[in-house]
Specification:
The protein is elongated and about 90 Å long. Helix 1 packs across helix 2, helix 2 crosses helix 4 and helix 18 runs antiparallel to helix 19. It is an alpha+beta fold and 710 residues long. Strands 12-13-14-19-15-16-17-18 form an eight-stranded mixed β-sheet, with helices on both faces. Strands 4-23-10-3-9-7-8 form a seven-stranded mixed β-sheet. The protein is built from 25 helices and 23 strands.
Length: 710
């Protein structure tokens, strides 16, 4: 954000601030009148009393609330925010004691009044586009953030905040920019402050591998979102906190993208950030500095945020149930079953987590953090279940765009100059699922052909919102207080494989039980088959000896585009229905099964074939170019994890004056080097040495960090 533009916006914002305060004041008085007419136990006499009461509520919230919430913050976080409702009611009750023309029967009535004020206020201010959060950010949050300001805030080096929209493909964002679904981002492009670029993921086009590459510069040996490790006799699932911590341990060299006093908000991995919130790899870390819930202060600084979030959750659940019913009524396909439980989990990603992370990001900007990275889950979550460009999915994207506009306003108001980068870690590809197309799941197909009696198969569903909800509960329970221990006790439970695992005993099942005969796992349209009781990487010849019909059945299935196996004679080989591709030599027999998947497909697959934890068989669904569809092995309308379509082609929207690579950026590790160079060019000396070289742009070679670990 440029300085001149920022000064102009500050003046404009100041001129509008008084108007907003007056509008909210009058609106609150009107709401008090309305509640007095309909709510037993609450009464207010006259317009003057309503205006005075509204003013008192506003003043107490402005002057007393910041001190109150600092004291009550640990309790507020450990009660998952519900304690705020009691505090809101206490404020209303206190005003009734000060203003004799206002009568509140008891604390419960005060809570109801506070809820009513928030709900009606949220509805009206949304319709009139009035942002009353600005007052709390400027006058409460900014002062608090300065107490924890970054050491180099006055260095003159601009800060950079990376805003990731999970799962948003380059082609989809282009159409959204054109059609008005992302007006903030479109404005940046049209005024020339930013440029849009497409980049390409590795074969594993999913958040775990992509963020390991983006944030740590190393995603070596990450074949999928979930995979079986024979040396541990256990699966790895990227969004399980213990597994995420293990992944970061393997890939971090201590100098990730955020190591320079950076902030990680709602990510899988931390990028070595000292300041983390809702980050899977750190939620179990009890050694993190700071008092309980310190990073949540930005959210609780506004006394109405909790009630507002609850109201928006209810609205989001209702909206989801409506759109799911519309899909059924109109027989829109592809579609999957979406019930009430999913609607609740969706609301976590689209409302609760979004509100928490946006507040934390704004707090980081006011604190002058030199670098930060946050992942917006909402689009990816809804696209999985509704479709990549369905009506409700694009509505969620529009709401994310508005949140980015709020972040931009805070960046303009911050003491430090900031540059904003919006990017995606991967895209999504759409299509009817494998089960829907063929009436059989991948695990059922493999189990039936192999005849294996003991099969480990992940449930074919997405649990990303549920996982982040679990992470929030886990993070809240990491204190050694009574409340913290109670939360840990309530979440320390084991679930069947494929569902969210919480607490400290999530590896017990793998430790206590013998490994299964067969493991079948899925990451979107990527399938992984391992034989855990067979040591090492099984060759094609050994698999044929054990299960003669397995490879031929998979190879000839119309829903499977190709499969990767290792041959004793030919090394890694890709097999399709009408041909084979020997990766070591590049020799193709018959039709090249990799041809439909782009010019870099062979390099991507060859790299995965060299991973120590590469499964015995890796397969990718068919890609139907005519309809631009894949067949997910999970029950997802929009999916990602393999190759085929737009899932492999995310975007980055960055300041246009920065250095832009002349060659296509291929692989998350290469994108990481480009991001480090941007930081170094701005004056972040901690990144200068590692950004000196240019990435080759080719995915075939492991990163230096990965090479050093071998």
């Amino acid at each position: 954000m440029g300085a001149a533009t920022g000064d102009g916006r500050r003046r404009l914002g100041s001129s509008h601030a008084v108007v907003r305060v007056v509008a909210v004041w009058v609106l609150t008085a009107a709401i008090l009148h309305l509640l007095s007419a309909i709510l037993p136990g609450f009464a207010i006499e006259g317009d003057g009393a309503a205006l005075l009461a509204a003013a008192l509520i506003g003043l107490i919230n402005a002057l007393v609330w910041p001190l109150l919430i600092r004291i009550a913050l640990p309790f507020t976080v450990l009660t998952l925010g519900l304690g705020v409702l009691a505090l809101n009611g206490a404020v209303v009750f206190l005003v009734s004691e000060i203003e004799p023309s206002m009568h509140v029967e008891d604390l419960g009535t005060g809570i109801v009044v506070a809820i009513g004020i928030t709900v009606v206020n949220t509805l009206v201010t949304s319709l009139l586009a009035i942002d009353d959060d600005d007052f709390y950010y400027r006058n409460v949050l900014k002062r608090q953030a300065r107490r924890h300001a970054a050491a180099d805030i006055d260095s003159g080096v601009p800060g950079v905040y990376f805003l990731e929209i999970d799962g948003l493909a380059h082609a989809v964002v282009q159409r959204a920019l054109r059609d008005g679904h992302a007006p903030t981002l479109a404005h940046w492009l049209r005024e020339g402050s930013h440029r849009l670029m497409r980049w390409e993921t590795d074969w594993s086009s999913q958040t775990g591998a992509c963020q390991a590459g983006l944030l740590h510069g190393d995603n070596h040996d990450m074949p999928a979102f979930r995979w079986w490790e024979k040396d541990r006799d256990a699966p790895i699932v990227t969004n399980h906190p213990r597994d995420a911590a293990e992944i970061e341990r393997r890939h971090s060299n201590g100098r990730g993208l955020l190591h320079e006093d950076g902030a990680s908000r709602a990510n899988i991995l931390s990028g070595d950030a000292p300041h983390t919130l809702l980050t899977m790899s750190t939620v179990l870390d009890r050694g993190r500095s700071g008092r309980i819930g310190q990073d949540y202060f930005s959210y609780f600084a506004n006394p109405y945020n909790v009630t507002r979030t609850i109201a928006l959750v209810i609205a989001d659940v209702a909206q989801e149930l409506y759109f799911a019913a519309q899909q059924r009524r109109r027989d829109i396909r592809p579609r999957i079953k979406r019930g009430f439980s999913y609607a609740l989990m969706r609301a976590w990603g689209t409302v609760v987590q979004r509100d928490l992370q946006v507040s934390a990001v704004i707090g980081d900007l006011y604190a002058g953090r030199p670098v930060g990275y946050t992942t917006f889950l909402a689009y990816d979550e809804v696209a999985h279940h509704s479709g990549v460009e369905r009506v409700d999915t694009l509505a969620v994207l529009r709401r994310l765009d508005r949140q980015i506009a709020r972040i931009e306003a805070a960046a303009t108001d911050a003491d430090r100059d900031y540059r904003l980068v919006v990017l995606a870690d991967h895209g999504q590809s759409q299509g009817a699922t494998f089960l829907d197309r063929y009436g059989i799941s991948l695990s059922e197909l493999v189990e039936g052909v192999s005849g294996a009696a003991d099969v480990h198969a992940e449930d074919a569903h997405s649990d990303e919102s549920a996982s982040y909800l679990a992470a929030s509960l886990t993070e809240a329970g990491q204190s050694d207080t009574v409340a913290g221990r109670r939360i840990r006790a309530s979440t320390k439970r084991r679930r069947v494989d494929g569902e969210v695992r919480l607490g400290e005993d999530e590896e017990e099942r793998a430790a206590e039980d013998a490994p299964p005969e067969l493991s079948v796992m899925a990451s979107g349209n990527l399938g992984l088959i391992s034989f855990p009781r067979e040591p090492g990487r099984l060759t094609r010849e050994r698999i044929d000896a054990l299960h003669p019909a397995l490879i031929p059945t998979l190879r000839e299935h119309p829903g499977i585009g190709f499969l990767l196996v290792r041959s004793e004679r030919d090394g890694p080989v890709v097999l399709g229905a009408r041909g084979a591709h020997r990766l070591d030599t590049g020799e193709v027999e018959g039709e090249d099964p990799l041809a439909p998947f782009g010019p870099n497909a062979a390099d991507h697959v060859s790299r995965t074939a060299g991973f120590p934890h590469c499964p015995d068989i890796v397969l990718n669904s068919t890609y139907w170019a005519d309809t631009d569809e894949v067949a997910a092995f999970e029950e997802l309308v929009g999916s990602h994890g393999g190759m085929g379509g737009e899932q492999s082609h995310p975007f980055v929207l960055a300041p246009s004056e920065w250095h832009w690579p002349e060659e296509p950026v291929i692989g998350a590790e290469a994108m990481h080097l480009g991001m480090r160079r941007w930081l170094a060019d701005l004056g972040h000396d901690a990144y200068a040495g590692s950004a000196a070289g240019r990435p080759s742009g080719r995915p075939g070679s492991p990163s230096p960090a990965a090479e050093s670990r071998r």
